[in-house]
Design a protein that fits this description.
The structure is a single chain. With 100 residues, the chain is an alpha/beta fold. The protein has one domain (20-92): Conserved hypothetical protein from pyrococcus furiosus pfu- 392566-001, ParB domain. It has helices spanning 19-23, 44-48, 75-83; strands at residues 5-6, 27-31, 35-37, 61-65, 68-73, 88-95. A six-stranded mixed sheet has the order 1-3-5-4-6-2. It starts with a strand and ends in a 5-residue tail after the last strand. This is Type II toxin-antitoxin system VapB family antitoxin. It comes from Longimycelium tulufanense. InterPro entries: VapB-like_prob.
């Protein structure tokens, strides 16, 4: 199994982070099998595009909430890493648990 779980939608409350806010969070390594996806649909054309991060963040966005790591943005990058047989990926993690 690539991911810990596959779900549809974000179970956590809206965090309101902007792209600039995400950019301030330093990337760290996370195991792919610790991530819970928030999207069930994978778009093959986006998966195969070499420049898919040209206008966005190089690092996927993960929200830590209730002890779980939710992959909010970067599903295609995570799947590409898995296809390259990598078990870890660099992501930006926002800890929503700290705000509770």
């Amino acid at each position: 199994m690539i991911f810990r779980d596959v779900r549809e939608g974000r179970p956590y409350p809206e965090h309101g982070l902007s792209a600039r806010d995400w950019a301030r969070i330093p990337p760290r390594q996370v195991r792919l099998d610790d991530l819970v996806t928030t999207k069930r649909v994978l778009e093959l054309d986006r998966l195969l595009t070499e420049d898919s991060t040209f206008f966005g963040d190089l690092f996927p966005h993960v929200v830590h909430w209730h002890g779980e790591l939710f992959l909010e943005d970067g599903l295609h990058r995570a799947v590409r890493a898995a296809l390259q047989q990598r078990r870890v990926i660099h992501v930006r993690v926002f800890d929503l648990d700290l705000l509770r």
